[in-house]
Specification:
CATH topology of the largest domain in chain A: FAD/NAD(P)-binding domain
Strand content of chain A: 15-25%
Bound molecules: flavin-adenine dinucleotide
Largest interface: A-B, 13 and 15 residues
Mean pLDDT of chain B: 89
CATH superfamily of chain B: ACP-like
CATH topology of chain B: Non-ribosomal Peptide Synthetase Peptidyl Carrier Protein, Chain A
Low-confidence stretches of chain B: none
CATH class of chain B: Mainly Alpha
Number of strands of chain A: 18
Shape of chain B: globular
Mean pLDDT of chain A: 95
Helix content of chain A: 25-40%
Radius of gyration of chain B: 12 Å
Strand content of chain B: under 5%
Number of domains of chain A: 3
Helix content of chain B: 55-70%
Order of helices and strands of chain B: HHHH
CATH architecture of the largest domain in chain A: 3-Layer(bba) Sandwich
Structural class of chain A: alpha/beta
Oligomer: heterodimer
Structural class of chain B: mainly alpha
């Protein structure tokens, strides 16, 4: 089989790339090793109920008239009409540093400014200076890593405010311990605080189905349960060998599976393992009747919290670090269809190697999962009110779950700490998009797929 | 294709990319990108649509020839004369 473009990975970056290429009538094949597409943001069935694996909220909310907003640019690039998606904006979220301060924010930045002004009198001018800086700053220009924390420390001299601003942005998009690249900070600040969050009506499955429909209507092809075993570059073309032995020849390969994961397929990392620490997380789902949502959930979408003196965004000593995390209420969006059973989701940092050691004894692994689920639940309860008694179903994904289903090294959702922003891995016809290119999250990964295709593949087809 | 037909083709493509584009007051001699508030990503779509619709291969170094409606006509007329 010979074709112009092969995409490896059916996560959101690969799906967006496939829509983009097929839209112009170019033949494209996307292969995904798992039985269903979606990657990190997929779905599964338990008790005849569809559960999303990820999806707290989609960032980069934008009104239709805001033409240059990343969300609208993305939809235009994919030729997906806004009317194909029903947008449910967040009710309101908060950054809660226990015994320190709480900052509420919404899709209206004025609220955040007012909150900062109230809680940090004197800091508002510095925040406005930050906004002016961000407006002029080109986050997409190639540049070496620059510490966002050092930058904020310098302009604010207000450690608590710095940590409170960093907490949500790190949880939703930093692959670096205790810091983030200033460019990534700028992208995430805009995505979360200036633009805001929403979720599509329905589930992530409906959203992914929409992308699949576009690919199919455009004439693109998707194969699931179809992993790639190795890839190779030749003069003027590239080949991929699938797990079933089939060999595919193509002009270009776009890999979305991670940089080292791609190197492994190329078999050119000389067996050297890169031990740069990667961050991983656990995700808990607590299902409960709508009426049982505690007081702290009312009118709220997401809580980014920290309980210690200092916010530690790093690999924990123990299997999880419940001192900080994210609590999400997927029912907390304007206009979401009301359901009898709703969810509370919690996220914490996790230590992959601890889970790996536990997994050698299955009972110990299960026991620790149970313990951590309980720990997370009681942590959430102390912040939002009791709900454990009403939980009808609970589940927890560890970094190993993520590794098993997506092949991510260490189950690290945000991939390698160092990003390859131009997607160039030193080969003329094999490029990288998605997590290790560096645009993270749902909108980020989709923009990654689209922009790498635009930059390296479409103009040359 | 005549010059007029080429202009219509480009306008049709732009409308397809951005159905809210304001095409009425367009100055044919002025840069399309600024007038229509297109970014470089959108601009690539014009090239790709020309390829999809008329199998035109426009090399990257020729993209500046598509800057204005008038320059599009000058550049595309010989390429589309038999279409
Ligand atoms: C629990 C959780 C919650 C999240 N919540 C949010 C949220 O609320 N909002 C948000 O914006 N983002 C969220 N994210 C992050 C977001 O899901 C990711 O940033 C994004 O989906 C990454 O997409 P990707 O395409 O880059 O990578 P992936 O989704 O990892 O896609 C890569 C794909 O490649 C496949 N693959 C791997 N190896 C091979 C191979 N050899 N052959 C074929 N296929 C292969 C994998 O199976 C996978 O499907 C969350 C993630 C998780 C895990």
């Amino acid at each position: 089989m010979r074709l112009p473009v092969l995409i490896i990975g059916g996560g959101l970056s690969g799906l967006a790339a496939a829509v983009r290429i097929s839209r112009f009538g170019q033949r494209v094949l996307l292969v995904e090793q798992h039985t269903r597409p979606g990657g990190l943001n997929s779905w599964f069935f338990r008790n005849k109920t569809l559960f999303e694996t990820g999806l707290h909220a989609i960032t980069n909310f934008a009104e239709p008239e805001n033409k240059h907003a990343p969300l609208n640019r993305l939809l235009r690039q994919l030729k997906v009409k806004r009317s194909e998606i029903e947008f449910c904006p967040q009710l309101g979220s908060k950054i809660l540093f226990e015994n320190c301060a709480t900052l509420c924010f919404s899709n209206d930045f004025n609220l955040f400014e007012t909150e900062i002004n109230e809680k940090f009198p004197g800091a508002i001018d510095k925040v406005r200076n930050l906004l002016t800086f961000l407006q002029k700053f080109d986050a997409f220009a190639p540049a070496p890593f620059r510490s966002a924390r050092a930058f904020l420390d310098e302009i604010f001299a207000e450690p608590l405010l710095t940590e409170m601003l960093l907490c949500p942005l790190m949880y939703y998009g930093s692959s670096n311990e205790n810091d983030m690249d200033l460019a990534q900070f700028a992208i995430m600040f805009r995505a979360i605080f200036l633009e805001g969050m929403f979720r599509p009506q329905g589930s992530i499955k409906d959203f992914i189905d929409l992308l699949l429909r576009h690919i199919q209507e455009n004439g693109g092809e998707i194969r699931t349960s179809c992993g790639v075993q190795n890839i190779a570059q030749h003069k003027g073309y590239a080949t991929a060998v699938l797990e079933n032995g089939e060999e595919i020849e193509c002009d270009y390969i776009l890999s979305t599976i991670g940089s080292q994961e791609t190197e492994a397929l190329l078999q050119r990392n000389n067996g050297a393992r890169d031990d740069t620490p990667r961050l991983s997380f656990v995700e808990n789902i607590f299902q409960l009747p709508y009426e049982a949502l505690p007081a702290g959930a009312q009118g709220t979408t997401i809580i980014f919290f920290n309980r210690g003196e200092k916010f530690h965004y790093q690999r924990p000593q123990n299997s999880i670090d419940p001192r900080s995390g994210v609590i999400c209420f997927p029912s907390g969006f304007k206009g979401v269809a009301k359901r009898e059973l709703v969810e509370i989701r919690t996220t914490h940092l996790a230590a992959t190697e601890k889970w790996e050691r536990l997994a050698m004894v299955p009972e110990a692994y299960q026991q620790e999962k149970k313990r951590c689920s309980g720990l997370s639940c009681s942590t959430a309860e102390s912040l939002i009110g009791d709900f454990a008694h009403a939980v009808t179903f609970r589940d927890m994904f560890t970094p190993l779950t993520i590794k098993r289903y997506t092949g991510k090294i260490d189950g690290a959702i945000y991939g390698h700490p160092n990003k390859i922003k131009d997607g160039n891995i030193g080969l003329s016809n094999i490029f990288l998009a998605g997590t290790d290119q560096g645009f993270l999250g749902i909108v980020g990964s989709m923009l990654s797929g689209v922009s790498i295709v635009n930059q390296h593949i479409l103009p040359r087809l | 294709m005549t010059g007029e037909e080429i202009k219509d083709l480009i306008l049709e493509i732009i409308e397809d990319i951005d159905d809210e584009a304001d095409l009425a007051g367009l100055d044919p001699a002025g840069p399309l990108r600024e007038q229509l508030d297109l970014d470089s990503m959108d601009f690539l779509d014009i090239v790709m649509e020309l390829r999809k619709r008329h199998q035109l291969q426009i090399p990257e170094e020729d993209y500046p020839n598509l800057a204005t409606l008038n320059s599009c006509v000058i550049y595309l007329e010989p390429l589309l004369k038999d279409k």
